[in-house]
Amino acid sequence: MGQNQRSQIEMTGEEAALFIDQSRTCTMATVGPGGMPHVVAMWYAWLDGHIWLESKAKAQKIVNLRRDDRLSVMIEAGNTYETLRGVTLEGRGVIVEDPDELWRVGVNVWERYTAPYSEEFQPFVEAMLRKRVAVRLDTERVRSWDHRKLGMGPTNVGGTTGPHIDGPGLPGPG
Length: 174
Hints:
Elements: H1 6-9, H2 13-22, E1 26-31, E2 37-42, E3 45-47, E4 50-56, H3 60-67, E5 70-77, E6 85-96, H4 99-113, H5 122-129, E7 132-146
Antiparallel strand pairs: 1-2, 1-5, 3-4, 4-7, 5-6, 6-7
């Protein structure tokens, strides 16, 4: 029987927070109308230790949360086994329609994905937030993993998907 390495690869709270802060895309899962998971890729805000999402008020994920507030978010990175890392947060999605909170989330999303906010960008953020709500994830459980802690040597990005991966330090096509 193999050795359980779970405790070896778990991130500390500080490591998980830094990983969330520096990552770009999360996978959000809500409970769909028939009980099946409804899973979508999302950009997110990271404010006061909470994941915040913004979405059209009538989107399926918001309809789902109004019916059942269970929400999971996963953020991951890595292209080879020894570089895999990620955080999964499970809890309750709180729909927030307060204009000031929505604005705070919108500015954070703008800054994370576009540029530092200044008044010249106000019309763009206003347009981005039109007919939208914010969702704060009140986390009840965190799971994390960082395979870099295993101390394995590097491996090449291979397999049938390897030639399609591009990025710093990764072999590209050709």
